[in-house]
Amino acid sequence: MIEVGKLRAIINKELLLLSRDIHGLLLLFVMPIVFILIMSLAMQQDFASRAGVKIEVLVNDLASDEASRRLLELIAEKDVFTLVSDKALQSPDFLELIQNDRYALLLEVNPHLSDELNQHAENSLGDLLTITVAPATKRQNEMIFQSIVREVLSRLRLEYGLKKLQQSMPEDVLAKMDVLLNGSNGIGVVYSYQDKEGHLSDKQRQAPSSVQQSVPAWLVFSLFFVVVPLSNTLINERQLGTMNRLRTIDVRPWQLIAGKLVPYFVVNQLQVILMLLVGIYLVPWFGGDQLTLGESLPGLVCISVAVSCAALGYAILIAVLARTTEQATTLGGTSNIILAAIGGIMVPKFMMPEAMQQFSAVSPMSWGLEGFLDIFLRSGGVIEVFQEVMALLGFGFACLLLALVLFTYKTD
Amino acid sequence: MKKDQSGNTNAYISLTNVRHCYRRDSLRIGMGLEGQNQVLNDVSLDISQGSLFGLLGPNGAGKTTLISLLTGVIPLQKGRVSIAGYQVPVDRDEIKKISSLVPQEYSFYPSLSGRENLLFFGQLYGLSGNLLQERIDYCVEVCGLQQMFERRAQHYSGGVKRRLNLAIGLLNKPSILYLDEPTVGIDAQSRHFILNAIKSLQTQGMTIIYTSHYMEEVQAICDDIAVIDHGRVLVQTSLTELLKGEASKKLVVELCQPLSDKQERVLSSFTTLLVTGQKITMDIEAENNDIYHFLSVLQEMQVGIDRMYYGARPLEEVYLSMTELSLRD
Fold first, then answer.
1. Distance of alpha carbon A279 from alpha carbon A271, whole angstroms
2. CB pairs under 8 A between A and B
3. What is the pLDDT of residues B163-189, one digit of tens each?
4. pTM of structure
């Protein structure tokens, strides 16, 4: 009972010290929240197209006739761009909205579209349509829209031509023409993050979005940042002589170490809960996507416990290696940033070249991130994250063991 | 009390032929290339129960290592140590229960209050409930911490920090208290308070091992003394014995300010006098000494006297003569 009382006293003391360490709290809780918000919102557009979110195109339909309606209908059918019309807008308003990047593109339909299509004449630039591109619109998006508009116009011309020939053509020829126009093009597209039927809804698999990447990435990063406050408390105890005093008291080394690890493990789990809540509630409140947690709560618990063990083992090792708090902050902080850069925390792995993607596997942060992504994106559970969990636990215990050996060696 | 296996029944704390080496830090992780730095070399000491034992030595002499060894901070490498009949390292846990260390550094948590620090260390000593509260109350009273008890220790003055450092050391009601320079960097009032508290603890039967660089403190409170240098014990004896010797045949007068040329010329008529700076030494045993005349001349010249002693040397002088004047690292 006395031994448990001692452990409880050490844990209480660590929690008190941490609660009064404003810088440590800012580092552990505020920094990752800020990172999640910034990165989720900044990378939203990059992930949006992958997640199926459509780009908005403002439409100024100056024709407003059957031909223009058919044109817009065919563009909308492509399911790539969302067409937005507002009859209350005047010409200067359209331009202003585009110049301010409120919409990616402006599509102006010429009032004489129908006449131009019927004449089958060579059209000059802007005779049929005008596309205005917003300053921040990506070149790829602009080219895709142009390509779609060209295809739709070709079809529209064909439809108008067929209409004229309808009376003189036999029924079977017309039927074949209809198949050519409306039939399948024979191209199959499979999304790796969807199930085989191509439906997101069947197994609730999640398409990658910026928030699905940012939350686990910066969550793993923040868990590893316990290295700074944890190593600082240990080094301060050494420098102040408190460690010597503790060693003259009948306190076991395991109590001293466990007394540090337990509260920081609790802090790590609080970080996990807080970051997930940020992804679910705060990011959408700022206009970003909402985080979805996948299906497996046990899997989520396993991976968050494993990342915490790896982070705590690493933190203790840095605390033992460093002689001063400055050394620990520099060594711990810098190595964390390097591990994060390598491990796909700062730049998503799919944006890295193949060689870098292979190299990222050396970072334990990468193992943690992959584990979280297994849960959030790939409908994974305990079995799917087992490999990452084992790797992280192994890393954590290896660091802890090395730290204990060095600690024992240094005290002599 | 357990029977002392060393056979020395008088000594409460006994060290016999103790040696200790540190591996050199710079080569620690150097694939077995570590050098050896001998800090304790064949140290033997006996400390009696209830004494206030002064452990003196220059920086790097081995005092802190000796205390670290006695308190279990570092392991015993060679030699034999018994404390209150318990053997080091076999009875390590028993020894920890009856002893306490007050380190030279402020060894507590600055961001915790005095109360929180005492509660934490008290719990580590295995105290709880009323017993813990009683011990805290006692320590707060002995060390005069009532005013600052609830404030965070980082806001304490140097003197209050020293008192808190001492209070933590008293929580487990130790029968042996190790004080490693407990009055460094504090004002005269706090020093006076702490020295009185230490004297009072000794009268309650506590054995106190005290290290300090302030010789007047040691001279004022210690009964027995050991001087160590370069890891060796130069002397271990009672304070009274140490201060006796050849110097007892001299009268020493320390002046408030240096003598003027004129005053020196007047005193030059005394052949048994030696003037060095603000100190005048008179050989009492010389045939032609005249103490009364010498003192009356000083009075006539209105020379301010800081202090005057006869029959014993100040501890600092004895200490410097033993450890020599060369600077230490």
1. 12
2. 81
3. 999 999 999 999 999 999 888 888 888
4. 0.71
